[in-house]
Amino acid sequence: MTSPAGLKRTRIQQEKREVILDAALEVFSAHGFRGSTIDQIADAAGMSKPNLLYYFRRKEDIHEALLKRLLDTWLAPLRELDNVGDPLTELRGYIRRKLEMARDFPRESRLFANEILQGAPRITPMLEGELKTLVDEKAEVIRGWMRDGKIVRTDPWHLIFSIWATTQHYADFDVQVRAVLGPNRGGEGRFEDAARYLEQLFLDGLKPRTT
User: Fold this and answer.
1) Co-location of 69 and 53 in the same domain
2) Which of these, 14, 45, 64, 197, is most buried using a 10 Å CB contact count?
3) 143 in the same domain as 99
4) pLDDT tens sequence across 117-147
5) Torsion angles phi and psi, residue 195, rounded to 5
6) Are residues 129 and 155 in the same domain?
7) What is the DSSP code string of 68-128?
8) Residues 160, 136 contacting (CB under 8 angstroms)
9) How many domains, the chain?
10) Which of 123, 96, 50, 114 is nearest to 198 (CA)?
11) Are 181 and 168 in contact (CB under 8 A)?
């Protein structure tokens, strides 16, 4: 890695970048790209605007760095889907990992959702490239399970989309989920409750039919 001057970053420089990126994540996830400013990010990072601009010259550069990191993190659970394992066990693990991300990375989820709602102007190449390639690869894994009679036949792409939608809901609409569940059910246990329900929803529906 190099600094703006083309020199290798020092430990302190890298730490400063991490502080900026964490502050920017907070700001972008709360206000979206258009509603966020360099001044807001600098304030959240506890540094002056000129100091921040030494590390990132534009708001767009900060946003792009966050999105690239986010996409890599977001794809990790899908990459772990293994064609060698038992299909229902693999899909159960995928659902669980996605819910864990909803629990542990709600700001990242909101950042991604905001970008998509704006038409994905800054990450379309990533969606059409790395994301599409990985989803197509895992869809073929799922189709292989279907051909072998291990799960019922369905559309693997829409199956993946459905898992995304249901698990990410617990990050993007967390305030609504907690409000509706109320104080007795809206605590940390809501994620385990969600996991059990989604496992039943998806896995029972995918089990091969017995005659």
Assistant:
1) no
2) 45
3) yes
4) 888 888 898 899 999 999 999 999 999 999 9
5) -60, -45
6) yes
7) HHHHHHHHHHHHT--TTS-HHHHHHHHHHHHHHHHHH-HHHHHHHHHHHHTT-TTTHHHII
8) no
9) 2
10) 96
11) no
Q: In terms of Cα–Cα distance, which of 109, 80, 122 is closest to 168?
A: 109
- How far apart CA 123 and CA 105 sit, in angstroms, is 19
Q: Is the domain of 152 the same as that of 111?
A: yes
Q: In this structure, which amino acid lies at residue 100?
A: E
**Model confidence over 76-119: pLDDT tens digits?**
999 999 888 899 999 999 999 999 999 999 888 888 888 888 88
Quick one: tokens of 209? Answer: 């039919």
Least confident window among 19-23, 31-35, 97-101:
31-35
